[in-house]
Amino acid sequence: MADPKPIECWMTDMDGVLVHEGRLIPGADAFVARLRETGRPFLVLTNNSIYTPRDLQFRLRSTGIDLPVESIWTSALATATFLDDQRPQGSAYVVGEAGLTTALHEIGYVLTDNAPDYVVLGETRTYSFEAVTTAIRLIRGGARFVATNPDPTGPSSEGVLPATGAVAALMTRATGVDPYYVGKPNPLMMRAALNRLQAHSETTVMVGDRMDTDIVAGLEAGMRTVLVLTGIVRAEEIDRFPYRPHRVVSSIADLVDDI
User: Fold this and answer.
1) How far is CA 244 from the centre of its chain?
2) Largest CA distance in the chain
3) Residues 42, 47, 53, 57: is their CA dihedral positive or negative?
4) Which of 13, 29, 151, 209 is catalytic?
5) CB-based contact 24:218 (threshold 8 Å)
6) Can you give the pLDDT at residue 159?
7) In whole angstroms, what is the distance from residue 90 CA to residue 244 CA?
8) Which of 45, 80, 82, 116 is 20 to 30 A (C-alpha) from 109?
9) Which of 15, 117, 209, 214 is the catalytic position?
């Protein structure tokens, strides 16, 4: 087997890798600082579509992680990129928050409940029964169904919360239509991120804390993968999956010297 090519670019997940429930994971600030010092191209990826990149930049800065807004890639941005490619200047009915609506506005989409091209479902902490009902009726009427990510639950200080995948399941049951998920583990999100960095998969590493999103997405996009044990997956759970990361480390602090 040929020796792997030198690492030129890095991608990391955010929750569980850099921060946990709004608090810095030790070493994450040093990792990002080293990337910036060396000039290595990198992106922080997240399936969370609630916040705009500028919102996330502010939230990360408050934990001690300072990075440019251009280095944040969300499932909302990936969804907007996908829709702009598929149907430029289209229309959508959105169930979601500012991160998603802002991304769609910026590509020139009209947000409407009047015969939209798409129903787009994203993350929100205030799902409205009325909005979900409207979305279901529009899908049954012919609107195409897209969702930012398939995560069934998300973390909070009180415990797990139903997330996009759980609400999508409700809407699928009511319409008989499955959504197209743009975010991880869809390698489409990873390919769009590689294009944003002008990077090649063979020289890029994906760092994540979830086997079912971060690691599989990186593998399917042809990247090397590193699993950190500061988030969802525990070491004893890795062998349950039919695929493995290229490397497992305790935390992102173990990767600082690799940059």
Assistant:
1) 20
2) 56
3) negative
4) 13
5) no
6) 74
7) 40
8) 45
9) 15
Residue 64 burial class via C-beta count within 10 angstroms: exposed 0-12, middle 13-18, buried 19 and up: middle
Give the model's pLDDT for residue 45: 96
10-residue stretch averages of pLDDT, the chain, 259 residues long = 78 95 93 96 95 96 95 96 97 97 98 98 92 98 97 76 93 98 93 93 96 94 96 93 97 95
Residues in the chain, overall count: 259
Condensed to tens digits (0 to 9), the pLDDT of residues 95-130 reads: 999 999 999 999 999 999 999 999 999 999 888 999
Q: Is 88 exposed, middle or buried (0-12, 13-18, 19+ CB in 10 A)?
A: exposed
Domains contained in the chain, CATH given: 9-47+184-258 (3.40.50.1000), 82-181 (3.40.50.1000)
**Residue 117 appears among annotated catalytic residues:** no
β-bridge partners, 44 = 12, 72
- Spatial distance between the Cα atoms of 81 and 59, rounded to a whole number of angstroms: 24
* Block residue for tokens 């695929």: 243
Q: Alpha-carbon distance 148 to 181, whole Å?
A: 6
Point out which residues pair with 73 in neighbouring strands: 45
Residue 3 catalytic? no
CA dist 163 and 165 (Å) reads 6
